[in-house]
Amino acid sequence: MLILRRRMSCLASVLRYSDYGEPANVIKMCKEQLEAPKDDNLLVKIVYAPINPADINTIQGKYPVKPEFPAVGGNECVAQVMELGSNVKSFSVGDIVLPLATGLGTWRTHAIYKENELIKVPKEVPLVEAATMSVNKCTAYRMIKDFVELKAGDTLIQNGANSAVGQDVIQLCKIWGINNVGIVRDRPEIDQLKEYLKELGATEILTEEQCRATKIFKEGKLPKPKLALNCVGGKNSLEMSKHMGQRGVMVTYGGMSREPVLVPTSALIFKDHEFKGFWMTRWKAEKGKSDEAIKMATDLFNFMKDGKLKAPKHELIPYENYKQAFENVLSLKGFAGAKVILDFSK
Amino acid sequence: MLILRRRMSCLASVLRYSDYGEPANVIKMCKEQLEAPKDDNLLVKIVYAPINPADINTIQGKYPVKPEFPAVGGNECVAQVMELGSNVKSFSVGDIVLPLATGLGTWRTHAIYKENELIKVPKEVPLVEAATMSVNKCTAYRMIKDFVELKAGDTLIQNGANSAVGQDVIQLCKIWGINNVGIVRDRPEIDQLKEYLKELGATEILTEEQCRATKIFKEGKLPKPKLALNCVGGKNSLEMSKHMGQRGVMVTYGGMSREPVLVPTSALIFKDHEFKGFWMTRWKAEKGKSDEAIKMATDLFNFMKDGKLKAPKHELIPYENYKQAFENVLSLKGFAGAKVILDFSK
Predict the structure, then answer these.
(1) In the list A223, B57, B152, B284, which could disulfide-bond B63, CB 3.0-4.6 Å?
(2) Which are the contacts of A19, defined by CB distance < 8 A and separation ≥ 6?
(3) Does B277 sit within 8 Å of A269, measured CB to CB?
């Protein structure tokens, strides 16, 4: 499928910006001459690179990550190794890889990355799954693992259950035997959405209205949630937190409603609830290519190989049509639609 | 000052209630015959017992602690040992003691308590200080110690700085060399209040308005707070949290505004702020007479002996006038006035 060409230098097409603004205005396709990789560097050919909401916000200058200009967009991808620096030990030409680090600028046909920024992807892992692993699936994995000890039979509750992360949370909970209750906004096609998410592995899907009134926890149909994952904020996070048991933890990783998280005083004092946040970018900056990071990648690769952890709904758009791609991303309401993936494979 | 009478039984006056309601309506003064203490029990004569807001809420049925009826009001006191059960090893008749446990019902002239519910108060500790130690001063101590590692030169910020706990926080911070910034509501006598709290040890006292605009943290006059203590909630807690540095923790122990704590999504995700609660009642139930509890009491006793940790403003009211005492407590707006302490010493 991929054509490998060994050569001493390479002319890359790069989606680059030198000022903050709307992506369609500030992103320009440029050519960049890449020299042969030295030392611990590798030359890779990018295959797929998603456009995530945080990438858009970074380009708009609304994200706390402030790149140096000129900057290349994108934070994740799947790529193939084309050429090795002389000190590279753990990769071979032809290997499929993905970046563990963030801020590498992945919207480009070719890139020079360092050995310790990459991890090898087993051949059996589908490429679109691999391309969408390092932001959303890693976020879902860490949030389930790092805040509360969840055993099979415990319960997790999340809003935005139909978001890309939400769908990964559902699949991982199913794999680990964790009851998971998802909250979504009401909509005309709510029945189809519920069916889709339940097939993915959701124990129960509730609309925001139903979340307010549900008695599944009070009546003991499910144990009270130990962990709540919040990407909405405002009243919805408040309603969700009311279901949490003693010492429940709510982890916020997004704020689609643009309203602050509302925390009842009594829940903090008498139920010992804790409210924390998670940011994959910080985790990666702190953990790098640690044993923990490798263990996570290995687990996720295995789940994807087995077909238990799938890519979100997506559309592949050739990178030359990047303006169209941005338009498709920005026309989505929140995380509702298909993930747009720039296709560099041709 | 106290008259000790050894006797085999004792007729106690007890402020008791058998139904939830307004304290002045449901609390009745009753007589109760106490038998001589057996085994690990002690007979004590109560000297002083404060009326705390939580005591009122418990009697009103608005508190999560639900006593068995008939119940005796009150959760803290200072008392003198009158008679020992045969197995009591660590106390002598005449010792001054206070309860480490909660829910013992302290509004009574005499009580039978267990050895492991009490701790001995050194003779040099003033009795009013001792009587008001186990709720407010212990709350202040634990909140400063248990959530963030604060070193001398670090900064803590708190609202309700003029509350009883707030004043204890100020004094403890001064003892430990921790910068402490207090927020209070604006009021006609704001200058006197600021002066009073600064004399107590506050580094800076700001009105809510001033808190919003202050640049003392941005301009580096003080390091950004690592810990925020919240007993107000609503917008005030939001404004306070904005000053916290990376990984700052806000601990909520009250909600005077009766509004939920507002937590900005971006602070959770990008600044890694954490929002937790503290409830002294739970801490005591879990820790009992542990080494930690004894270490805390010893520290506080030493500070009180040295005159570095004072009782809050208070008024002593003879226990027979308990209806007047409740009236005085309930006429206070929040924690603004003097703490009412029932006086059983006569």
Answers:
(1) B57
(2) A26, A69
(3) yes
Task: Give me the residue from B265, B267, B277 closest to A273, CB to CB.
Answer: B277
Euclidean distance between CA atoms A293 and A296, whole angstroms: 5
> Around Cβ B36, how many Cβ atoms within 10 Å?
15
> What pLDDT is recorded for position A334?
40
Task: Read off the DSSP letter of residue B108.
Answer: B
Instruction: Assess A263–B contact: CB distance below 8 Å, yes or no.
Output: yes
The pLDDT mean for chain B works out to: 94
Q: Which two tokens stand for residue A244?
A: 């949490």
Query: What residues of A are in contact with residue B279 (Cβ under 8 Å)?
Result: 269-270, 272
* Range 50-79 of B in CB contact (< 8 A) with A: 64
DSSP 8-state code for residue A217: T
| A303: in domain | no
**A179 in a structural domain:** yes
User: Which residue in the set A233, A264, A265 is minimally distant from B265, CB to CB?
Assistant: A233
The phi, psi pair for B241, rounded to 5°, reads -65, -25
Q: Which chain B residues contact residue A252 at CB under 8 A?
A: 263, 265, 268-269
Cα–Cα dist B195/B212, whole Å: 21
Distance CA A299, CA B159 (A): 46
Question: Are the C-beta atoms of B29 and B107 separated by less than 8 Å?
Answer: no
Q: Based on the domain organization, do B174 and B126 belong to the same domain? A: no
Shortest Cα distance from B134 to chain A (angstroms)? 18
Instruction: Indicate whether A195 and A103 sit together in one domain.
Output: no
- Do the chains contact at B276 and A274, CB–CB below 8 Å? yes
Let me know whether A245 and A324 are in one domain: no
Question: How do beta strands A227-230 and A249-252 pair?
Answer: parallel
pLDDT of residue B4: 53
ipTM of the complex, rounded to two decimals: 0.92
Interface touch B268/A276, C-beta < 8 Å: yes
Q: Could you tell me if A252 lies within 8 Å of chain B, comparing CB atoms?
A: yes
Q: Is A295 in CB contact (< 8 Å) with chain B?
A: no
The domain that contains A314 carries what CATH number?
3.90.180.10
In a domain, B4, yes or no: no
Residues A44 and A113: beta-carbon distance below 8 Å: yes
| B148-170 average pLDDT score | 96
**What are the catalytic residues of A?**
63
Q: Is B274 on the interface with A (CB under 8 A)?
A: yes
Is the domain of A221 the same as that of A316? no
Compare CB distances from A265 to B252, B274, B282 and report the shortest one's residue. B252
Query: pLDDT averaged over consecutive 10-residue blocks of chain A (346 residues)?
Result: 59 97 96 95 97 94 94 97 96 96 94 96 97 96 98 97 95 98 96 96 97 94 98 94 97 94 95 98 95 97 97 94 93 67 94
For the CA atoms of B178, B181, B182, B185, the dihedral, rounded to the nearest 10 degrees, stands at 180
Handedness of CA A126, A129, A131, A133 (dihedral sign): negative
How many structural domains comprise chain B?
Answer: 2
Distance of alpha carbon A230 from alpha carbon A238, whole angstroms: 10
Q: Say if residues A111 and A12 touch (Cβ distance below 8 Å).
A: yes
C-beta atoms of A254 and B265 within 8 A: yes
Of A253, A261, A279, the CB nearest to B263: A261
Range of the domain at A99: 9-133+309-343
Could you tell me where the beta strands, DSSP code E, fall in A167-307? 179-184, 204-207, 227-230, 233, 249-252, 259-263, 274-277
Q: Is B260 on the interface with A (CB under 8 A)?
A: yes
